[in-house]
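The following record pairs a protein chain with its ligand, uracil.
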Amino acid sequence: MDNVVVVEHPVTKHCLKFLRDKKTGTALFRDCMSRLGLCLAYQATADLPTRQAQVETPLNVMADVEELDMKGVLLIPVLRAGLGFVNSFLEIIPEAKIAHIGMARDHQTLEAKVYLRSLPDKLDTYQRVYVLDPMLATGNSCVKTMDILTASGIDPASIVLVCAFTAPEGIKQLHQKYPQIKVVTASVDKCLNEVGYIIPGCGDAGDRLFLL
Ligand code: URA
């Protein structure tokens, strides 16, 4: 699958086990989503560009070093479930800026409705935008999110979508419209069920993070 990176790491697999298990309670579910987010963040940030610099070490010699422009990184969690990855990304990129998009799913039509859109001015100044959306299911809410971002001036090639679970249907829909957007995920699952849930998936990730 083009432009899809599946993070194959023993820790992601271990976290997926607990996320999928219906017996996992809220605290462990949050913890596993956050640890999974760390593995994904590590992979998703691996190609960020660095600048050459020099520092003086305690031995009074100069060392050639590299530095990252963390302020050029924008995180956009898609509420609710995307909040589960924010702290993981901040562990890796503590100076990243954070904007929010809220999407609610109409359970009859499976259409996504935007209920929050809180984005900074001058979006085109960010060199990398991480859209944090643990569940890429039908792709409806994801494409709507990308429509908002690209209409606000973000180059699709600078966007990386970070997911815990994806369905082939969602990846297909996203990449039909935005083939340049890289997807970093812990799993590409089998399919969707008739009401748009990922199978086998983990159920409703927002409910499991915040309500159950
Ligand atoms: N959103 C979820 O939280 N779970 C799914 O399976 C699909 C969309």
